[in-house]
Amino acid sequence: SPLHPFLQSLPKCEHHMHLEGSLSPSLLFTLASRNKITLPASADSAFTSPETLLDRYTRFTSLDDFLRYYYISMGCLIYEADFEQLAWDYFVRAKSDGVMHAEVFFDPQAHTERGIDYETVVNGFEKACKRAEQELEVTTKLIMCFVRHLPVEHTNETYIQAEPHLVSGRLAGIGLDSSEEGHPPRKWHEVYGKAKKQGIRRTAHAGEEGPAEYIREALTHLDIERIDHGIRLADDKELMREVAERKMLVTMCPLSNLKLRCVKEIGELPIRTFLDSGVSFSINSDDPAYFSGYILDNYCAVQEAFGLTVQEWENIAKASVNGSWCDGSRKDAIL
Ligand code: ES4
Ligand code: ZN
To answer: What EC designation does it have (predicted)?
Structure first.
C-alpha cells in the first residue's frame, strides 16, 4: 500500500499479542535442539522441519486447531533465558513497526502445568521488558491470562500465586484466553470479582469464535474494562452502543481472525461498523509467528480491505494510545 510508510511511522500501541504466539518455527527448532526436546514429528509430520511447520500454519481450520500447535510448541520453552529471548525478539520487531508501548499477554498455566516455575516465566519476560524500555524506549506491560480449557480451580491457584505481583503492579492485569466455545466467561466470575476488589485491571477474549452473548457475559459477570477480539459485537446493536458509550477498547486482530477462519476475508470484519458507531478499537497481531503478520502487517491488511483515510488511521492509532493502561504522562509523550 502507498500508505505503508505512513502506517509504519504512526505512533501506536499494541494490546493484544501473546508472547508465546511469537515463537517462530525457526526459534522453536533452535530451542528444541538446545533444550534436547523431541518434537512429535512421528505423530504429526508438520513437526519435521521449520518449513513444514510454517506450511501447516497456512492451513489452520479453527482456533482449536491452532491452539494444538501453540501448546505443543511452547513445550520447548524451559529456561528463563528462553522466555527472555522470545519476548526480546518480539519487542525489537514491534519497535520497527512503530510500536511505542506494548501490553503483552502470557499464559502462566500453560507453563506451570508442565512443570516450569511461575517465577522462571515471569522473570524471563520481565528481563526482556526492562531491556525494551532501556534500549528501545518501548514501554511495556505484562498481562497474565487464564486459560479457559483448564478447570476454574486451576485458575484460582494461579491467581493466588500471582496475587503479590498483581497488587504491586509488576503485572498490569488479568485476561482470559484459549478455547472459547463451551467455556462461557461467567465461569471465571469469582476470580474476576476478587481482582476488581483489589483494583486490578481486567480484560478477556470474547466474541472471537463465540457469540455476542459471551461479550455481554464478560461485561456483566466479569466486569471487564477491555474486550479482546469482540468481532461478534456487531451482531448485538444494543450491546455495541453500550460499548461505544462507555468508550471501551476492542482489541482487534484481523489476520488472526482470517487465519483461524472466524471470517472468510478481512473485509467481513466490522471495522467500518465500529468506525461509524463510535466503537474504539486497536489493531493487533495476536500470535504473529503463527498468523504470518506482526502489527504493521495487520494495519496494512486492514488498509487493503477498507481503504481508510489518513484521518481515520490517525484516529485509530490515537485510540490505541488512549486505550492503553499506561499513565497519562506516557500517553501524552507518545501522542
Ligand atoms: C489465542 Cl488467537 C487466540 N485466541 C484465544 N486464545 C489464544 N491464545 C493464544 N492465541
Ligand atoms: Zn488473543
So the answer is: 3.5.4.2
